Amino acid sequence: MPTVLITGVNRGLGLEFAKQYRADGWRVLGTVRNRRNAGDDLASLDIELHELELTDFSTISALGHALRDDAVDVLIANAGHLGIRDMPIDNIDLQSWETSFRVNTIAPVALVGALLAPLRRSVQRKAVAISSRRGSIACNDTGGRYMYRSSKAALNAAWRSLAVDHAELIAFVLHPGWVRQTGMGSSLADVGLEESVSGMRGAIDSATAASRGRFLTWDGKELPW
Ligand SMILES: NC(=O)c1ccc[n+]([C@@H]2O[C@H](COP(=O)([O-])OP(=O)(O)OC[C@H]3O[C@@H](n4cnc5c(N)ncnc54)[C@H](OP(=O)(O)O)[C@@H]3O)[C@@H](O)[C@H]2O)c1
Predict the structure, then answer these.
(1) Could you count the other beta carbons within 10 Å of the beta carbon of residue 205?
(2) Mean pLDDT throughout 5-24?
(3) Using CA atoms, how far apart are residues 195 and 206, in angstroms rounded to an integer?
(4) Which tens digits make up the pLDDT trace of 111-158?
(5) Which listed residue, 16, 43, 93, 224, has the most CB atoms within 10 A of its CB?
(6) Is residue 31 within a helix (H) or strand (E), and if so which, with residue range?
(7) Cα(93)–Cα(68) distance, integer angstroms
């Protein structure tokens, strides 16, 4: 069976991705910041856990080293950082904004860099970034969320470059919808957790060379950058 590597599997979308891929018999490699954060739900899944702190790039290199002789068919760069929602621009929290860029933009690209050999060695060679509609400049008509929006827009730009520079991979960006039962969603959100993840898995499964460099929603629609 193919292998998927998912970041941030201890909760939210990452945990649901791990559950669904395992249920389909995939080999699942999951990352958590700290194994002690792995709850009962995760412990009951038969997945290989690795520790990864995305603000500490030495842990990204260590993961690449641990998997250097492995094959990873699908990388899902899922873990994300919301940052401060309502930051007044006359009181910028530089540290939190930097963390957003480290976690949401730089670390996912560094992860692909660290896993180039395992991705190239695989059959599917897919590198997927879980971005957000809030990272779309064209869709931004409500403003605010400077940290989150700018770091996801930068992720989109970087992933597009990745898709152009690494034509040996199928690199594209997904928006999961606004999803219930997740840290970044809300009980008021319009998409269910299982529905979002099964939709994104469908988009990943059906991705071909024509998917390179695209920005798609969980239900397969194209988003403007
Ligand atoms: N939920 C939505 O409605 C929605 C909408 C659009 C986009 N997204 C995107 O979808 C992805 C998953 O969202 P979610 O709602 O499932 O989020 P979530 O429930 O808040 O989970 C976030 C995950 O990211 C991990 N993480 C955060 N900072 C990290 C760091 N520095 N190093 C390593 N891991 C880190 C968290 O680990 P800890 O538990 O250790 O903090 C957790 O596993 C994110 O990229 C998000 O931007 C979500």
Answers:
(1) 12
(2) 97
(3) 17
(4) 999 999 999 999 999 999 999 999 999 999 999 999 999 999 999 999
(5) 16
(6) strand 27-32
(7) 37
Domains, the chain, ordered by start: 3-217 (3.40.50.720)
Q: Mutation test of ligand 1: which of 13, 51, 75 has the most ligand atoms closer than 8 Å to its C-beta? A: 13
Q: What are phi and psi of 192, to 5 degrees?
A: -75, 155
Residue 44 Cβ inside 6 Å of ligand 1? The answer reads no
Q: Name residues whose C-beta falls within 8 Å of residue 48's C-beta, 6 or more positions apart in sequence.
A: 27, 28, 29, 30
Nearest to 128 by CA among 59, 214, 47: 214
Whether the CA torsion 33, 39, 43, 47 is positive or negative: it is negative
Closest atom, ligand 1, to C-alpha of 10: 43
What Cα–Cα distance (Å) separates residue 202 from each residue in 22, 127, 219?
15, 15, 8
The whole-angstrom separation of Cα 111 and Cα 106 is 9
* Centroid of ligand 1 to alpha carbon of 51 (angstroms): 15
| pTM of this prediction exceeds 0.85 | yes
Amino acid 38: pLDDT: 83
CB 156 within 8 A of CB 131: yes
* Number of residues written out for the chain: 225
What is the CA angle 183-185-189, rounded to 5? 150
Cα separation, 100 vs 27, whole angstroms: 30
CA distance 157 to 100: 15
Specify the pLDDT at position 43: 87
